[in-house]
Amino acid sequence: MEIRPRIKLELTHADKTVEIIGWLLIFAIWGLAFYKFDSLPDIIPTHYNGSGVPDGFGDKWMFLTLSLVATVLFVAMTVLNKFPHIFNYPTYITVENAVKQYTNATRLIRYLKVIIVAVFGLIAYQTIRHINGQTEGLGAWFLPLTMVLIFIPLFYFIIKSFKTK
Q: For 9-37, what is each residue's pLDDT tens digit?
């Protein structure tokens, strides 16, 4: 088994800003959930198909699961980001390249967790709009947008990792 160096990375100003944005989004999604909860009907859309049309319905308490899942994922990815030496990398990690590879990988996780929280926030927002009759669901644009938001950073950081040997 490969033994990788354990390095404590210093966050740049940009990294700290992304972290703050993530936490602000977490607070915003919880704020939205609590602010709108009492006005929700007893049955709400709880699942959407690939076209963004609701195809599953449940109790309004399920609305809080969006905030809960977003928070659990965000916190779990935040904790995971403290241990970049356990990540899988497309290149061999050495003492010479560890800082750059770890920085690249933790930055990817940082961006992805903000994107994930934003996606959950959009689902919550669009669910409320659907309940209020302002939209037919998430919209046909939602799934492609989500895929683009996830895969562009993923490809960017993987390519950057291969270039950083």
A: 999 999 999 999 999 999 999 999 999 99
What is the C-alpha separation between 119 and 30, in angstroms, rounded?
Answer: 14
Domain ranges of the chain: 13-163
| DSSP code string of 49-96 | -TTS-EEEEEEGGGHHHHHHHHHHHHHHHHHHTT-GGGS--SS---TT
Q: Do residues 143 and 102 lie in contact, with contact meaning Cβ atoms separated by under 8 Å?
A: no
Query: Could you give the 3-state DSSP secondary structure of residue 13?
Result: helix
Q: What is the pLDDT of residues 64-91, one digit of tens each?
A: 999 999 999 999 999 999 999 999 998 8
- In angstroms, the CA 136 to CA 53 distance is 7
Digit-coded pLDDT (tens) for 40-65: 999 999 999 999 999 999 999 999 99
Is residue 126 within 8 A of residue 139, CB to CB? The reply is: yes
Q: Where are the alpha helices (DSSP H) in the chain?
A: 13-37, 63-80, 98-131, 142-163
